[in-house]
Specification:
This is YecA family protein. InterPro entries: YgfB-like (IPR011978), YgfB-like_sf (IPR036255). By secondary structure, the chain is mainly alpha-helical. It contains eight helices and two strands, in the order ααααββαααα. Strands 1-2 form a two-stranded antiparallel sheet. Helix 2 crosses helix 5 and helix 5 packs across helix 6. The protein is globular, with a radius of gyration of 16 Å.
């Protein structure tokens, strides 16, 4: 069960839990959580659950209604982390970030801001050290996307430029994982 990829119902349970217990300092949705976990499994060292779990909640664990609810959430998180680690290690080209989808001016559009914000949270919790310039530039692609405000897309959004920026995120995540994996 610890290595079974999550299904739609699992992600819905994660989202419900994040909404129930989250606040302005916590991970807010499954997309952000996916970015967070991607950075955690990609970094220079394994991060213990005692560090990454409170990081979901902004440093403070929630006051769970029941121990079972906490166990279920942890199980879903561990399954997803294991899936990401397995995928990035053994089939990196199959890695797909969990981006949000929206419609803008009648066209489908992927939004990567929250995923990237979660990734940067994972970089911070993983305490990544300085990297060489090529890896810094790669991480900058994620940083730049995290700094966008996609809550209200501007009417004059350059769709081609936006799509190119989002398309660069998954290769950047793969490259950073490969860099740190070679250092371990």
């Amino acid at each position: 069960m610890q290595n079974t990829p999550l299904n739609a119902a699992d992600f819905e349970a994660i989202e419900d839990t994040l909404l129930q217990y989250g606040d302005d300092h916590s991970v807010l949705n499954p997309c952000e959580l996916d970015g967070y976990f991607t950075a955690l499994v990609s970094g220079p060292a394994q991060v213990d659950i005692a560090e990454w779990f409170p990081g979901i909640w902004g440093g403070e664990n929630p006051a769970w209604e029941t121990p079972e609810q906490c166990r279920q959430f942890i199980d879903l998180c561990v399954r997803h982390i294991n899936t990401l680690a397995e995928q990035l290690t053994n089939a990196p080209q199959a890695f797909k970030a969990r981006f949000e989808q929206t419609e803008h001016q009648g066209q489908d559009l992927l939004l990567a801001e929250e995923w990237c914000f979660g990734y940067l949270r994972g970089v911070a919790v993983g305490n990544w050290p300085e990297m060489p310039a090529p890896q810094v530039r790669t991480l900058q692609l994620i940083i730049d996307c995290a700094e966008q405000d996609n809550f209200e897309l501007p009417a004059d959004l350059n769709l081609d430029q936006h799509r190119q920026q989002v398309a660069a995120i998954e290769p950047a995540a793969r490259a950073l994982h490969a860099y740190w994996a070679a250092q371990r």
